[in-house]
Specification:
By secondary structure, the chain is of the alpha/beta class. The chain starts with a helix and ends with a helix. It has 18 helices and 19 strands. The strands form five sheets. The protein has a six-stranded parallel β-sheet, sandwiched between helices. The chain has a four-stranded mixed β-sheet with strand order 10-13-12-11. Helix 3 links the parallel strand 2 and strand 3. It folds into three domains: about 200 residues, 2-enoyl-CoA Hydratase, Chain A, domain 1 (Alpha-Beta Complex), CATH 3.90.226.10; about 45 residues; about 210 residues, UDP-n-acetylglucosamine1-carboxyvinyl-transferase, Chain, CATH 3.65.10.10.
């Protein structure tokens, strides 16, 4: 019986292989009819990984581009050169072009093809704004670009001189001329016709034999997030975002306390800078969420037995007033190697304009503390959280010199006092702050956010630590600064 079972198991792969031999080849086709930028690079790299991981017989990039960023172009080229699946670049449909960076990407493919009435070339580098480069720098940049595209052509046994002239002379070639000169290998009117024609060809230098006749073609599209990011790098939208950002910040500076112009301005400016690639996406995301890390720190401190890690937390010295207040409330802080601390700091880095760190936070007992006018500027937005923490502390917590809170989206002093009192807190309002008598916790109930995103977030965190839970009226206000706040908060307790 045992030998019979082993025989069945070993025979199964042979039967499966026989079935696979009868299946048509599979080709993944990605379409790029846009400029070359970090978003389209991410799209192409991701689809090529998909082709490798899912065993496609070939990857085809259907290309129509005016060019784009050199850094993104080189990233795509490196991805093509290291690919473990045949890469075909097809300049199509008729009327399309592979200009500038697109021509270089085409030279990096295992097989280059064009549809009739398309063209390729004009790869002379220019500055980001479209202007010519100064004479001395121009010579260096052009020599580098010419050598780069020339070596790609040489390794794939294409016309090196013609490839270099696309850079040095901005030469541009129609499809039939490009094939006659050895710049591309095939001209085909449609993708199915191309796949039938290249079937059986052997690529250079990798030596892949193409199996593409009658292929089952899977069309790949950009994800919603990629399309949204791609929109943000549109030069026209970048100009609008930067203008709105600067205007909003100026209005906020001239009218302190309005908040909305400053919030909209900061978000617009960050998105505009991301579009310009002044900020990488991770730093842009960090700045958008910079002021919200405090709420997760508070959640970890208040919920017994909890411990969380927060990555990429901004630690600009002008924005870490809450940490100084927490230290006074008995929260011990230290470096990663120091044991027994409620909060430890790891991996301090400066990847952009703001220093960042990874914070490890665990629940701990709190003591009452005093916050003075000197503390307020660096912790103004976190003072409602201090009131919440004071409810769970041992002793009295006093906040003074914070009359600015009355001029936020709402009167935050009365909002936080009335809101926390409704949850069972012993809290009293003062003209410039509040006094909280710590009772070790909150009963729970309903809190009115008053259209203020900070009060809504305070209510959500209070709900995690209260006895009966908290219902927040007007919770949708959090979307002003942090649309994913609820989802991220829930992920901590999932």
């Amino acid at each position: 019986m045992l030998s019979a079972v082993i025989g069945l198991v070993t025979a199964a792969p042979a039967l499966a292989q026989s079935g696979e031999d009868n299946e048509p080849p599979r080709v993944l086709a990605a379409h790029l009819d846009n400029d070359i930028n970090p978003v389209t690079q991410d799209y192409i790299d991701g689809q090529l990984d998909r082709a490798e991981d899912n065993g496609y017989d070939a990857f085809v990039l259907v290309l129509d581009t005016p060019g784009g960023l050199s850094s993104s172009m080189r990233g795509i080229v490196k991805c093509f050169l290291s690919a473990k699946v045949p890469v075909v670049v097809y300049v199509a449909p008729p009327g399309s072009s592979a200009d500038s960076a697109g021509a270089v990407i085409t030279m990096a493919s295992d097989l280059a093809a064009m549809a009739p009435q398309t063209n390729i070339g004009s790869s002379t580098p220019i500055s980001l704004g479209g202007e010519d480069i100064s004479k001395d720098l121009r010579r260096k940049v052009i020599n580098d670009a010419a050598a780069y595209i020339g070596e790609l052509a040489r390794e794939h046994e294409r016309n090196v001189q013609a490839a270099r002239e696309m850079v040095t002379k901005a030469s541009n070639f129609g499809a039939r001329q490009a094939k006659a000169m050895g710049i591309v290998e095939v001209i085909a009117p449609t993708l199915p016709a191309l796949l039938d024609e290249i079937d059986g060809m052997k690529t250079i230098p990798k030596g892949y034999v193409l199996h593409t006749a009658d292929a089952d073609v899977t069309e790949a599209e950009m994800s919603f997030w990629q399309r949204a990011r791609d929109l943000l790098v549109d030069p026209n939208l970048i100009a609008i975002m930067l203008s709105i950002g600067l205007l909003g910040i100026v209005v906020e500076l001239w009218n302190p306390g309005l908040i909305l112009p400053g919030t909209v301005g900061a978000i617009s400016l960050i998105l505009g800078l991301y579009g310009l690639q002044v900020l990488p996406v991770s730093i842009a995301g960090l700045l958008l969420l910079l002021l919200s890390a405090a709420f997760f720190i508070a959640a970890a401190l208040l919920v017994p037995g909890s411990e969380i890690g927060l990555r990429e937390v901004g630690i600009n010295r002008n924005r870490i007033g809450l940490l100084a207040i927490l230290s006074r409330m008995g929260i011990e802080m230290g470096a990663a190697h120091e044991e027994g601390r409620a909060m430890t700091v790891h991996e301090i880095r400066e990847p952009g304009p703001e220093p960042v760190a990874t914070l490890q936070v665990r629940s701990d007992d709190l003591a009452g503390a005093s916050v003075t006018a000197e503390d307020v500027p660096a912790a103004i937005d976190e003072l409602p959280l201090v009131a919440l923490l004071g409810c769970f502390a041992d002793g009295e917590t006093v906040v003074a010199g914070a009359e600015e809170l009355r001029a936020k989206e709402s009167d935050r002093i009365s909002g936080v006092v009335e809101g926390l009192a409704a949850l069972g807190a012993d809290i009293e309002a003062r003209p410039d702050g509040f006094i909280v008598q710590g009772t070790g916790g909150l009963r729970g109930g309903t809190i009115d956010a008053r259209g203020d995103h900070r009060l809504a977030m305070v209510g959500a965190v209070a709900g995690l630590a209260s006895e009966e839970g908290v219902e927040v009226d007007g919770f949708e206000a959090v979307s002003v600064s942090y649309p994913r706040f609820e989802a991220d908060l829930r992920s901590l307790i999932a």
